[in-house]
Amino acid sequence: MTSHIAPVELAKAYRLINHGPTVLVSASHGGVANVMAAAWACALDFAPPKVTVVLDKSTRTRALVEASGRFVLQVPTVRQLALTQAVGNTSLADDADKLRRCGVTLFQQDAEPTPLVAGCAAWLACRLVPEPHNQQAYDLFIGEVEAAWADTRVFANGHWRFEEAGPEWRSLHHVAGGHYYAIGAPLSAQDATSPPSPSA
Amino acid sequence: MTSHIAPVELAKAYRLINHGPTVLVSASHGGVANVMAAAWACALDFAPPKVTVVLDKSTRTRALVEASGRFVLQVPTVRQLALTQAVGNTSLADDADKLRRCGVTLFQQDAEPTPLVAGCAAWLACRLVPEPHNQQAYDLFIGEVEAAWADTRVFANGHWRFEEAGPEWRSLHHVAGGHYYAIGAPLSAQDATSPPSPSA
């Protein structure tokens, strides 16, 4: 299962989420692991790479992040649409068997203590940068990316390869209520028409 | 030019950026207006709607946001690819004629004092929520959305209509170095295959 997973250099880790995908957030503490979906995750810095993610106070994942000081953001694919929707709409507090029911398989990678979700396109392992005011007032969490990996079938040599991988590898971009878009066609600004010349 | 622009109710304003598009940030103060591109913008709350955006200390737009206490996030389209790349790679500090050279046309909408960029798919007018520590330590700015509008040809009744609008209306999702993806095909979690049933 993990044979296509390769490290991504930290200087390029921001590229894994720069295009705005909905992500899965995994965390674990004291033998309990959980996974939730988050559309509100974003890059924050290049070096060291940092990210933001919004974690509602009602989520069990948030409590695990606060207790362990760590989380992993991962980029799910079209193949994981039902899984993504399911982990985003059920709580471990209501169903101790949530992850199995949602079809989540966890695995460990390298020295990272937080488990990763199998089948994703990319993973960013983060150390929580404690900012109590942001966490309390805005549910906003900052993480420093300490390691990153990608499945080389869809991200290799620092570049997404959505156009070469099959459509099942496309990232998911949630709008609302279970309505998503897959990422689409590549565009190069170098090929774009120049900005219109305003009349003098 | 503005005949297709309609207000978006604030409760649904988050949907305009929930799918992770690269945005344009406009701001103005003391008779000076500027526009920059930002891939690091994200929803932060539903009600009242809030957003985050990362504004580097080197940008003139940031100074205008700090001085005026306001900014507008807007969602550019495939038709604006060259414009988006251009405003993200030139500075008003180096070229007082930046906006004209980049092909930007500004307009005023309703009572919003900050000018909007013509031709975009959607606009979110924000009041800066001052958080000096975030701004200084992380270049992270929080805004409360006070008004929102969309072009009804691509967003109507609270929903994106990318699949019905022409391909030139798709949002832009920057990866790095002028390489973007357009948003792609719609996916409904209701239609997705159920999560795989793990073997008992």
Automatic annotation (TrEMBL), chains A, B:
The lineage of its organism: Bacteria, Pseudomonadati, Pseudomonadota, Betaproteobacteria, Burkholderiales. It is an enzyme of class 1 (oxidoreductase). Belongs to the flavoredoxin family. It comes from the Bacteria. Its cofactor is FMN. PANTHER family: FLAVOREDOXIN, FLAVOREDOXIN-RELATED-RELATED. Residues 15-166 form the Flavin reductase like domain. It comes from [Empedobacter] haloabium. Its EC number is 1.-.-.-. This is Flavin reductase family protein. The keyword Oxidoreductase applies.
